[in-house]
Amino acid sequence: YYAIYLLNNKNALVDGNKLSINATSVIxxxxxxxxxxxxxxxxxxxxxxxxxxxxxxxxxxxxxxxxYNNEAFDNNMSYLYFIYSYYANxxxxxxNKLLNNTLxxxxxxxYGYYGSNHLIANNQLIDNISSGSNMYGVYLYYSANAVIKxxxxxxxxxxxxxxxxxxxxxxxxxxxxxxxxxxxxxxxxNNGGDYT
Length: 196
Description:
The structure is a single chain. By secondary structure, the protein is an all-beta fold. The chain is 0% helix and 57% strand. The strands form 4 sheets. Strands 3, 7, 11, 12, 15, 16, 19, 22 and 25 form a 9-stranded parallel β-sheet that branches. The chain is globular and about 40 Å long.
């Protein structure tokens, strides 16, 4: 299920939408596919129910995206990806909120898969619960030259392991002024371990 699908666009604007979807299949709320220089802002994703994987925003091979002031809260899913940047470069991801969501399995807050030069700043991931598997606040996988700063990761409860900021295979990374507290450093209830 695709709610908003951008395909081979440039300078697209996705602004001020409110999405509530019930589905048993995979859900893509905003799918930005090979669309450079998109601005995705002020969207609200709430009261969604599903039994499969839920992508709030999927930025796929799209460069120079500006992603800010988006909120996802009070959703109940099996798997949730908040902002997934897949082979995208020069993404600016800031002032987004992921609040009070409930998962049966894994949660990925902000996930950069390859790509480079990401700025991830001033995002809030607070009061999210996964009953069955791992939870990642910010996860960068082979993403070079990332700047991660002034993010709040708090009260993240995982059924297995909770990772605050997870950097894998990074060539160059800078993590400054990151605020990681609550569920990652304190009050973590899981079966695996907590990592920051």
